[in-house]
Amino acid sequence: MKFLDKAKIRIISGKGGNGMVAWRREKYVDKGGPAGGDGGRGGDIYLIADEHISTLMDFKHKSVYKAQSGENGGIKGMHGAGADDLYIKVPLGTVVRDTKTGNVIGDLTEDGQTLLVAKGGRGGRGNARFATANRKAPQFCEPGEPGIERILELELKLIADVGLLGMPNAGKSTFISAVSSAKPKIADYPFTTLVPNLGVVKKSDGGAYVIADIPGLIEGASEGVGLGHEFLRHVERCRFLLHIVDMTAENPLENYRIINNELAKHSERLKNLYQITVLNKADAVDKTIREELKKEFQKISNDVFVISAVTRENLQELLFFIDKKIDEIPKPDFDIDIKEDTGAYDNDDSNFEVTKFAKDGFIVTGGKINRLAGVTDARNTEQVVRLQNILTSMGVFEELKKKGIKNGDTIIIGHLELVHYDDELWDSNK
Prior knowledge:
Blueprint: E1 6-12, E2 45-49, H1 58-61, E3 64-66, E4 86-90, E5 94-98, E6 104-108, E7 114-118, E8 149-156, E9 162-165, H2 172-179, E10 197-202, E11 208-213, H3 232-235, E12 240-246, H4 252-266, H5 268-272, E13 275-280, H6 287-298, E14 304-306, H7 315-328, E15 353-357, E16 361-365, H8 367-374, H9 381-394, H10 396-402, E17 410-413, E18 416-421, E19 424-427
Parallel strand pairs: 1-3, 2-4, 9-11, 9-12, 12-13, 13-14, 16-17
Antiparallel strand pairs: 1-8, 2-7, 5-6, 5-8, 10-11, 15-16, 17-18, 18-19
């Protein structure tokens, strides 16, 4: 299984329901007034951090998320029902970026933390809303607002207190299985760890901390060589590192330097991040060699432990020391530049396009215009006049004149087929 730490998703919030044109039709009530209800709001879309999810693998199989639309308004002043909001679960440590602007719009680090990424459309008003002292019988309503469609990039940065680093086959997976309940794959060949394994280790005082087994790094990892380069950035969120060194390797000191060089090339923070050096596989090395290696490493590292993750030799001593460092070293405070996310509310679809067809016909298309046409009855003069006023304010007629429209030409907007006479529109079917 490949670890997925980046994903793109397409989200579409719910459309608002249309308003209704309706009238009171009750016995003994003469000339009942307007009674069209409002449309319901469309569903919002949220991202929610869930501690029970550890990767973005679910987004490999599903990448499009659409919230429900609101219901249309009804008769007798009945409002359409609002749609349920949609919550998309993501792992802790998910950084959210708007692909259109490139801005980071969220960093979800706590269980249950939510981020609104697409507001649902507002429901359109029914004709009852437009009644005034001078206009007692409005013949029109509003369409619902559209939903918001956008593409987001999710990037996972694992949140762990302690990160395990080391060459492939250094024994990191064996170590994490020995100190926690994690059950990683363990085998005697390079690149056994294909995904970061997270384990929870209980402290002596009753608390706990999270330890992450990061896939093995090789020389050139910071430039994209090998498997581990994908995971270098995950290490940055750790309090400190455990550098696991295989004492049975041909040159343990050189392996140690290679890993640290990759950290330094990746970032200044990783270069200076505190490390505990753990010389592993003591059960497979002669005691004299163990002591010599420990002395060599103590020249370049302050805290050096010799252990065997297999036999658990000196493991408890190391764990006590880790407990102490967990209390001493605070969690890093990352200053991620999060921009205000105006895209979550940007449902303006007022752009339009005018296309000429044949010799005397024009097609007008656009989200808002199509929605207005959807609630316009061409047989109703008041509704057509309202549509004409809105098209004028949007600049549609100005654009039609640039395209060369003449009296008697046909204008098609959605299901409407209208004839143009100067500043008036008429149903061509009359």
